[in-house]
């Protein structure tokens, strides 16, 4: 939480804090790991498929050791730079540090970097890598952390390089934040969007190194208070940003931290209106002196449900009476095709699904509708975990997601969240991240999860969802 403090007396004073220097763990993944000045080496054997190491003394990151391990590597060797097989790129400095963590997409492989031992808090990770894609290929980097317990939210994509053999000679670098709860691991995953078979035609990816540091402190924001035309009344104005809410708090002394002060004049959980929020005609209290602060907080989600306590009463269900209905519970995988059916919730013990422990029925329609929420002007994103197990096209057994007008439950024009029917067999839970359409911005809406089946008697588990979360963009 950050705040800006203002003292009202005869003048206004602004106070802010300075950032502290932080320890950075720099990891060199190359064959001659550790030769870079100030960089740690990650242990492993030549042509192995994994590396790991534990690093102590980084007190800004951990109370003990920070442990880092890589798995899923196809090769652990120098990349051929055109001068002979297995020749390393020179590693005299970071800009030329091309390393040996390579994998090839024809195995549809995934490289995972698992980080454990981080204390609770927000951290900043920077990855250094090279790409060689003589064939079509886009590599996707995503993260599993305390804020995103399931994969599926990309933090970067990388494509064809421009140097010898399609290799970029300037390292590709991406920096992103992760959140640790002090207990669970952080996992950084690299996969290829459309793996291509056949030798090297789909491309190679190399991790050169990684840096881990505490996330930098948020910059201070300006708060301006001016008397207005009414005696004893003041106008407040401060910098604001999307995804935040604000409290105006006040005290007559500085003996306690602003986070403990009382909300002033009922001004709590004020939605951001970037780039500036304004409050007018706020009473100053008439005191000889009074301090005001604006506290910035993460905005609560617009909608959040994990179904651990069943289907809440605020969620509405309906069906056509054909024997298929939305339910909450634990799927058991004991249906007609147990090999493709869910056997557990995505997280926790319960999820929502069509006939949670039985196949759906023929000629059925079943709807699950969320409570109403207002989409901010800047838009919002729907995140959830999905499991689909249906007959495939040209079957009519499909799931869909629609936005409804909260006032009358009519389908919002231009409110389709997905562009294609949800059908087929996923065989596992898959994280979904779907921006709500622009037509919803500024409106009060509901989300409908709809399933329908045709008259065919080929029946499967159906449509399952878990961990539904809608957040402002």
Summarize the topology:
Elements: E1 2-8, E2 14-15, E3 25-28, E4 40-41, E5 43-44, E6 51-55, E7 66-71, E8 75-76, E9 101-104, E10 111-116, E11 121-132, E12 139-144, E13 154-158, E14 172-180, E15 186-192, E16 204-214, E17 223-227, E18 233-239, E19 244-251, E20 262-263, E21 270-271, E22 276-283, E23 290-298, E24 303-305, E25 316-319, E26 326-329, E27 351-354, E28 365-369, E29 373-374, E30 380-389, E31 398-405, E32 411-416, E33 430-435, E34 444-452, E35 462-472
Parallel strand pairs: 3-4
Antiparallel strand pairs: 1-2, 1-23, 3-16, 5-6, 6-7, 7-10, 8-9, 9-16, 10-15, 11-14, 11-16, 12-13, 12-15, 17-18, 18-22, 19-20, 19-21, 19-23, 24-35, 25-28, 26-27, 27-35, 28-34, 29-34, 30-33, 30-35, 31-32, 31-34
Looking at this protein, list some descriptive labels:
473 residues; Jelly Rolls; seven-stranded mixed β-sheet; seven-stranded antiparallel β-sheet; 35 strands
Provide an overview of this structure:
This protein has 473 residues and is mainly β. It folds into 3 domains: 2-18 and 218-298; 25-214, Jelly Rolls, CATH 2.60.120; 303-472, Jelly Rolls. 0% of the residues lie in helices and 43% in strands. The protein has no helices and 35 strands. The strands form 6 sheets. Strands 3, 4, 8, 9, 11, 14 and 16 form a 7-stranded mixed β-sheet that branches. A hairpin with a 5-residue loop joins strand 1 (2-8) and strand 2. Residues 6-22, 76-107, 160-170 and 195-202 have low confidence and may be disordered.
